[in-house]
Specification:
This protein is of the alpha+beta class and about 500 residues long. The chain contains 15 helices and 16 strands.
């Protein structure tokens, strides 16, 4: 149970959260037409006669949209309904040329499922299961543009008919952190499956945030719905601000009204958009132009077989088979691109060192999550923009693994790889950075360090063993980081007695 509470003037309040996530299905055509779905096209350039609701035009379901919804349902261990149906949801709006939206109210394609979220990256025990009520497939509406003309609004129908999955959670979340963790995990799963690109800034994934408050243990309160929130951070802010607003309203003697609200990120506040009764009368009825969707076992099996290794399974494998820490496994599986990059790096590192992946996994994971991420962060680049490829990273790690260069030199080499695009081996050869395993040179450097620090030698021999690290550091510094650390340690131990 979450211990998140709103502290009101009259005591503690608990927040209850449910999310309805609209995820644009990753296909090159719309749900019922062959029109394109590319982001950023000129207004009204991706509109078929079906999308524009020209008389006599009949919708034809896009098989790939159905397939992707089913694959998503299987990925969250949900009930897949072999029989589902499209309904017409009737309402008038300027960006809805048909005068109705084709959706699935009574018989959705995906039933109940669940997602497990982790609330603390460093604590594998901090998990919570969030129930999912349903996933239904529906078409998107167009878009009204109010800023193109001083007195008129323009209509862009490029999004009209775009295929959406509406993923409806149970009201199982009790804090902004839980809502954020759920949305992040859902986005990760969709991106692994490939059913939605998860680009919230482009509108291909957005959340309607349902929030109510109650005294702990009491029945649910009246909820509000904040529409079209387009980032994880904003979803968390909506939960916090809307819960505080409702508590203040109730404590002042007012009542929460069931309504639709909008979030203003500049002011960090929600504001009323329109009131909402318990249910609008949309006059739902089965769409007469569309037959029910009937799925057979072979189709379901093909969907199941097409799924990749999903984030929870991958994370478990990284921890148990590769021996990575829970934290590193979490970082490496959070984004599908990161896990793909890591696996390419791991394969290259293992091949170039002639070792099993399990033996080099920690080296590869630590280098990627600390060294490369840190260096790219300084450059303001993401992993997919990295000038260093996984194969080039594997070659650098192989030089360390084989003792050709030390770990500290490897950091310098990485900087030069990012600057020049040259291979690690070329840089090491050109700049004379190879590690010295010449015992004579190491002994000479150690003798000089010990002679210059005779007082510390006495302290060490008198029992202050922590000084050993100081001697190692001074020797490596004297050798410009090129001394073989293992040999430096051995020579120092022998000479310090």
């Amino acid at each position: 149970m979450s211990d998140y509470r709103i502290q009101g003037a009259t005591g503690e309040w608990e927040v209850v959260i449910g999310l309805e996530v609209h995820a644009q299905i990753s296909t090159q055509a719309k749900l019922f037409s062959g029109a394109a779905t590319a982001f950023g096209a000129e207004p009204n350039t991706q509109v078929s006669l079906v999308d524009a609701a020209m008389p006599g035009m009949l919708p034809v379901p896009n098989r790939e949209c159905i397939r992707q919804a089913v694959r998503t349902g299987i990925a969250i261990n949900a009930q897949i309904n072999k029989w589902s149906r499209f309904d017409r949801k009737n309402y008038f709006y300027a960006d809805l040329p048909q005068g109705y939206q084709i959706s699935q109210l009574y018989h959705p394609i995906v039933g109940e499922g669940a997602i497990e979220v982790q609330l603390d990256d460093k604590n594998p025990e901090s998990t919570k299961t969030i129930g999912i009520e349903r996933i239904h497939v529906e078409q998107d509406a167009g878009k009204l543009m109010h800023d193109q003309h001083p007195t008129m609004s323009y209509v862009d129908l490029n999004r009209s008919g775009v295929a959406l999955m509406e993923i409806v959670s149970r009201p199982d979340m009790r804090s902004p952190a839980e809502a954020g963790a759920y949305l992040s995990k859902l986005r990760t799963i969709l991106r692994y499956v490939g059913s939605c690109d998860g680009n919230m800034d482009q509108g291909s994934m957005r959340a309607d945030v349902n929030v109510s408050v109650r005294r702990p243990g009491e029945p649910f309160g009246t909820r509000t719905e904040t529409k079209n929130v387009n980032s994880v951070r904003f979803v968390m802010a909506v939960v916090e601000q809307e819960a505080k607003r409702q508590v203040a309203l109730i404590e002042d003697g007012g009542k929460v009204v069931q309504e639709t609200r909008l979030y203003d990120p500049d002011r960090n506040e929600t504001r009323s958009m329109r009131s909402k009764e318990d249910a609008h009368d949309y006059r739902y009825f089965p769409d007469p132009d569309l037959l029910p969707i009937e799925l057979d076992d072979a189709f379901l099996e093909e969907c199941r077989a097409s799924l990749p290794e999903l984030p929870d399974a991958k994370r478990h494998r990284y921890e148990t088979v590769l021996g990575l820490s829970a934290y590193n496994a979490g970082v490496l599986t959070a984004e599908v691109e990161t896990s793909r990059w890591f696996e390419a790096l791991l394969a290259a590192t293992a091949t170039q060192q002639g070792k099993p992946e399990s033996e080099v996994a920690k080296q590869a994971a630590n280098w990627l999550t600390s060294e490369l991420f840190g260096a790219l962060n300084k450059l303001g680049k993401g992993l997919l923009e990295s000038p260093v490829s996984p194969e080039a990273g594997g070659a650098l790690l192989a030089l360390v693994g084989k003792g050709t260069i030390s770990g500290s030199i490897a950091k310098q080499v990485l900087e030069k790889m990012l600057e020049t695009g040259d291979a690690a081996g070329v840089i090491v050869e050109r700049e004379g950075l190879m590690q010295t395993s010449d015992t004579g040179a190491i002994e000479a450097a150690v003798d000089a360090v010990l002679a210059a620090n005779s007082d510390k030698v006495e302290q060490y021999r008198a029992g202050k063993e922590a000084l050993f690290g100081f001697f190692v550091g001074q020797t490596m510094k004297a050798m410009q980081g090129k001394g073989n650390p293992q040999l430096v340690n051995e020579v120092l131990k022998a000479k310090l007695g």
